[in-house]
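Explain this record to help learners:
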Amino acid sequence: MLALALEATSAFGLTGVEIRTGDVALFTALIDALDLYPVWRRRLIKDFNRKISLEQDLERLTLATGSTRNEYEGVLAALAGSDRKAALALVTDLMSIAGTTNVGGRTVAEIADRFLEQSTLKGGALPRDALDLIKRFLAISGDPHGSIARLRALAADAKLDITAAIDAFESRVGFMAARGVETGAMRFSTSFGRGLDYYTGFEFELHARDNGGEPLVAGGRYDGLMTQLGSMTPIPAVGFSVWVETLTRLGGKPAKGRVGGSAS
């Protein structure tokens, strides 16, 4: 897929483009290995995918619990220590008593998740050692091979079970090299993401050097897209978007017969 994207930029006369990459599966593996509360896991992964104040949220989740009370204090107390199934049952019962099935367009499940999140956040802070590990992880960047070495060192030092995700990343880099991609020139960052929460693995953007504000081509693996659109089961998918106007403006019209193929 990345090789095809590079062929697209080359067809417009643009070579030596900047390749920015990341892998949300690595972050997901890290959060799973830290064995956090489910609501913390969902919140952090959502923040990472959408790029909504992840750093600020990490700090906020480590603050000491405050004494502020709200109108749902009783519900939050009842949910303390509960799992999602118990929270869903309680909220379902409460809404049944009230004679309603949704509030403000939110379903029972969404309301239960929100209450459970508030209960967990009120019950305690994100452990400081977990925060430190997440920050160390997010600081890893550089060429893929050096990043793989640093990831393995972090996993060994912190005794984190993320080997499978690192192995998959390393294998992918090897396949890219075999396909002719100059992996040593790639820029990898554990904090890189496209800001879309349906991505589930490798992500990339191609930028013109010295003019990198707007991507030329961008995409990755998004196995979560179809479930967000209503599919009952995940459907593996990869693909990318091409900014044809930007390619034309920076590189000119494509050479005849050089653009083709499927992106997904």
About this structure: DSSP finds twelve helices and six strands in the chain.
